[in-house]
Each structure stands twice: as structure tokens, then as C-alpha cells.
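Why this split exists: single-chain examples teach little about how molecules sit against one another. For that reason, every record in the complexes split bundles all components of an assembly together and asks for one structure covering all of them. Below is a record exactly as it appears in the raw files.
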Amino acid sequence: MSQQAKQYKAIGEDLWKNRTEKVNAELFSFTYGALVVQMIKDYENYVEVNKQLEKMGYNIGTRLIEDFLARTSLPRCVDFRETAEVISKVGFKTFINITPTISFPSATSQQQSPRNEVAGMTGPTEFILTFDENPLAEFAELPLDAMGSKYAKAAEEKKVLNWDQKEIGGQDEGLWFSNVLCGVIRGSLEMLQMQVEATFVSDRLRGDDSTDIHVKLIRIMEEEQPINDE
Amino acid sequence: MTVYGVWVINKAGGLIFQRNYGGIKPLTPRSGLLCFLTSVRSLSAHCNEPVTTISDGIAQLSANEYLVMAGTLHGVHAITSRIAPVAKSSGVQIIESESFKMTIHMTLTGIKFVLISSTDMSNAESVLQKVYEAYADAVMKNPFYTLEMPINATGFDARMNAIVAASGT
């Protein structure tokens, strides 16, 4: 672990211990579960539920970021790699006490990608957060029809699917139970002028080996200043 | 160590919060303040109300004048961060006059917190940090608050009063 990563880990742990108000984990998990189930009843469509959960997360993220900045007073990250470290070790740590593992897909090819120049950034422009534990889904077990057709089939055959090899395509099928997290990441980064795409690529609930969120930087938004009508 | 007022300016340059806090009237009133005001006033043709001064603090202006000044400050801030010799400069942080100073803290999300205080205010930065925390707690966490809109939260006012009261000691 790099010096920087260690430093963020310490910041995250300090904030969690001393400056975070805690709630009962089961209450949190039940509340989220009840919410998702009620949405499934209301929308009767997993795709729509995923979309709504993401929107809710976005609205949370745009507000949560202010709390995060006010309490941490962290300066702006120099690159997207640092952003990933902060999200994992400080962000997720202080709010839900988990530290997802970060990995950078095809990091070498990323460094030469033309998108980097457009964004004015060095280093990677995408990363994957791997969740070893997920407090949102502590007690959840998805029904087969919520797993997406390909997942459900694979689950029956006990076959392991590999995302990298494009074996699966049913991204938009079935329920992504914790999709609110994707929205939170997108919302909070958007407030910091980073437009990102955050999507679940796998979820243990759907029979995958791990729970992964893929975050990809689309562009750095220049601060647009609307003309003041005064 | 007196706080005269606090402004919150959203990222588009709109004034979303402005309060004057009672302080001691400066001994040499209107030296720097009036220069600033008159220059701003000349920018807005439709502001004709006279400058009225409340007895125990800084000049009380009309809501419209505050809006114009916040917009002007927003522009000045943009200029200072653009002409800076390094990229991604924070822009102007302190404007100081003979009788008072303005300390500006811009968050990474683009909101500006402005503290108007006496010149001997040494803890202005930490006061603004507390204001930011109060904003995050009492404004942003309210699900009924719409982003970028004027702040009308009694909870925030109460916390601001406490911060201002504690800041002078």
C-alpha cells in the first residue's frame, strides 16, 4: 500500500471513530431492503427500479459531498487514481464503514488513451470498486427472476461467468439491489466537476464471485458560469 | 474579533444567504466600506435607496444591493483565479480595508462562504469551516432544500448565531 493510501486509510478510520454518528446496522439494512421491495411492488419492473435507485443515490450524493468536504477538508485530488483512493478509504469508510478494494482495468493501455489528454488528466480514467461486504444487502437473497435471465441460468448450472470476456450481456436485466451506491458516486463526483459513469458489473446476490462497481470518468466539466441576470 | 456579517454565494454567483450580525460600529466608518459600496452602487442604476446604517454594526443595505455585490464578488473571484500564475488557483481569499476585512472560502463544489469581520479576526478561516459544516448539516441534509436556492432554514440560522457568538472569544 502506498504512502498516500495509508494516509487516507488513517483519515478514514479517524473520521469513522471520532466524528461519525452511527445507527444500528440492522435498522439501516432493513430500511433499505423495505424500500427496494416496495419499489419493486410499485414499479413491477426491475429495470425501472434500478433507474430509480440510481436517481435516489444521485440526489443523496449531491448533498452528501458537502458533508464529506466539510468534515474532511480534503484538497482536490490530483488524478483519478487519488479520487479512487479517497472514495474507497475515506468516503465509503466514513459513511458505511467498509473499504472496497480498488483495481484499475488495463491500467497500461489507459495511460496512452487519448481521452486522458482531453480530460487533462494523467493516470487511469476508470477503476473498479470491489466490495467484500455490503451492509445494504446484509440479509438479502434475490429471487431467481431478479437475477437477470443469463445470471439465473448460470446460477442454476452453477457456472461462473466472467465479465472481462463478455460472456454476459444482461447488464440491463434483473435487479441491481445496491444500485443506489452507483448514484451516490455519480452525484458526489458531479458536484466536483467530474462527470462519471458508475455501474454495477457483478453482484454476489446475482451469483457472481464478487460485487463490483465500475466507475469511468467521462469528462472534467469546466465550471460554466451562467450569465448573471443582474 | 467581531463578525459583522456572513454571505453564502452559490456556484452561479447568486446570493443564497446573507445576515448581518450586531457588532461595534467602526470608529472610522465608511473609509473602505463606502468606496466599495459606491463603486458597486454605480453599477446598479436601479438602486436608489439611501445607505442606512444600523446603530451597532455595518451598513444595512437593500436586498437587491446585496445581490449585486455578491454577483460582483463572484466576478472578482473568477478574475483572480484566472489571472493567477498557477493553474487551478483558489482565487481571492481576503479583501482587507482599514476598518474591516472579508474572508472568502470557496469549497470544491464551488460555493463561496464570505465572512465580513473586524480586521483583527485571526480565526476567520476556522469560523468559515464551521459555517461550512453547519451548511452541510442544517441545509444540505434537509431533504426539502433545493440546491442553489436561497436558504430559509431556522436550524441554520440558529447554528450561525451560535458560531458567531462563539467566534469572538
